[in-house]
Amino acid sequence: MSSSLLAVWVAMTHTRHAVAPATSSSRSAVPTSGALNPQMAAAAEQAARTTPTPFYLTSEAEIAAAAAHLEAAFPDPWVRSYSLKADPLPAIVSLFNDRGWGANCVSLGEINAARHAGMPNAWITLEGIGKGPEEFDAAIAAASTGAPFRWVAIESLDEARALAAAVQKYLTPLSTPLRVLLRLNPSIEPGTHAGLAVGRGSSKFGSDLAEITAAARLIAADGAGIELIGIHLHAGSQLRDLKEWETAVERSLAAYAGLVSEGLITEATHQKHGTLCVGGGEPVALDGSDDPAAQARAFRAAADAAWSGAAGPVPLVRAIEPGRALVATGTYLIARVLHIRERAEVVSGPLALPGALASNCERQVILDAGMGELIRPVLYGARHPVLPISSRDGSTRLSAVHGPICESTDALGAHQLPEGIARGDLLAITGAGAYADAMWSPYNGRPRPARLLLGVSGELSELRVRGLI
Ligand SMILES: Cc1ncc(COP(=O)(O)O)c(C=O)c1O
């Protein structure tokens, strides 16, 4: 791993902070999600002595635990790839490389990050709606040297046409075929936030059956060194409706069978490389209410049900490509309090306390971290519990927590925070491992935060230094 070591051993003697119950008004009794675990709290305090806040602090043990749940539910020969879009930091990707996971990439930048993490081409998959000439070139160059990517997933008929043309224009004949999947839009209701429901028929992602068939015919007629091996699916993120997901997998299997029976996936390819990648989307509840092991097993059971109910030829290679479920909970955004303002604020909607329509906050707390480092509350109304690290006393007050950006939407919602919290106190924003640093913005001239890792043996290391602006 390309990390510079701070070589700090973290004391494990911190006591758990007692956090009083969260409320929908300042005095009702909805529990908070608790306190930061003592080892992470100690690591955060230790790191904050030398690293300016905000910074991201990742627990290697928590990432390992999340990966282990999915590995147990989807053991070999399932192909497991980590979706870099959740967090492409090479040091994080290398944790998955070490465990035998591949890399699911959507851009040349992510391909480079995967390579920095030591991923061989054979473990890299390329997909995404934004592939352009650079991504095509990378895939074609890999195939021309005899070390192709595991596959490239094609979004549309137009993209199939463009890829075929790019292969034909390439000067050197490919020494191995460029293996492709076609991405199916399963046309389901994924049961998630509208912004994450990519499996809806009206979304911009994937092709319907007619378009899949047209793209497959184009590839078969082209004969330009592209080999169609199967179907790619990603029904959405934070998927809560497993029945809908099972339907999406069933439709993918039906699409696959149709391609085999039309000869658009050849019998030889079907026998050797036939593939269905079912994507990612396993949800994460940041209040700890999920059982990730049981959830992974439930996804597996739904996939098995679809496979066993399928009529016609089924693909032998089965693949998953989760992002969030692997990394979301293992990273904390460590921030400091900048201001406390005694101003009442009603926080309503998804950023209110869990289960409340609105939360009557007694004061406002402004942090030095917000939408620049974690845009999910603004993008999706995602509520990330904010936990005290250095609590002053046992009593708490319901506080409207805000970020430092000159936008009033830069808010983290209603949280119970220690009564005596003051400027300079440290807090941990939980669930900052997925789609947080990956979506970082320098708006307002703010430098990219440092990345730190608490290793499994308690060692703290710096994965990325704080940036300049
Ligand atoms: C095609 C594809 N695969 C995998 C993922 C990872 O999804 P998640 O982080 O929800 O597991 C995404 C997320 O957008 C995606 O678009």
Q: What top-tier CATH class of the largest domain fits best? A: Alpha Beta
Uncertain runs with pLDDT below 50, 5 residues or more?
1-33
Alpha-beta classification: alpha/beta
The CATH superfamily of the largest domain turns out to be Alanine racemase
Number of DSSP E strands: 20
Bound molecules: pyridoxal-5'-phosphate
CATH architecture of the largest domain: Alpha-Beta Barrel
Offer a quick outline of the entry:
The protein has 469 residues and is of the alpha/beta class. It is built from twelve helices and 20 strands.
Provide an overview of this structure.
The protein has 469 residues and is α/β, with parallel strands linked by helices. It contains twelve helices and 20 strands. The protein has two domains: 4-58 and 329-464, Lyase, Ornithine Decarboxylase, Chain A, domain 1 (Beta Barrel), CATH 2.40.37.10; 88-322, Alanine racemase (TIM Barrel, Alpha-Beta Barrel), CATH 3.20.20.10. The protein has helices at residues 38-48, 60-73, 90-98, 108-116, 133-144, 157-169, 209-222, 242-261, 267-273, 292-309, 324-327, 376-380; strands spanning 4-9, 55-59, 79-83, 102-105, 124-126, 151-154, 178-183, 226-232, 275-277, 317-320, 331-341, 345-348, 358-361, 363-367, 386-388, 396-402, 411-418, 426-429, 450-454, 459-464. The strands form three sheets. Strands 1, 2, 11, 14, 15, 16, 17, 18, 19 and 20 form a ten-stranded mixed beta sheet that branches. Strands 3-4-5-6-7-8-9-10 form an eight-stranded parallel β-barrel, surrounded by seven helices. It has a two-stranded antiparallel ribbon with strand order 12-13. Helix 10 links the parallel strand 9 and strand 10. The longest helix is centred in the middle third of the chain and has 20 residues, at 242-261. Bound molecules: pyridoxal-5'-phosphate. Residues 83, 85-86, 104, 127, 234, 237, 279-282, 321-325, 434 line the site of pyridoxal-5'-phosphate (PLP).
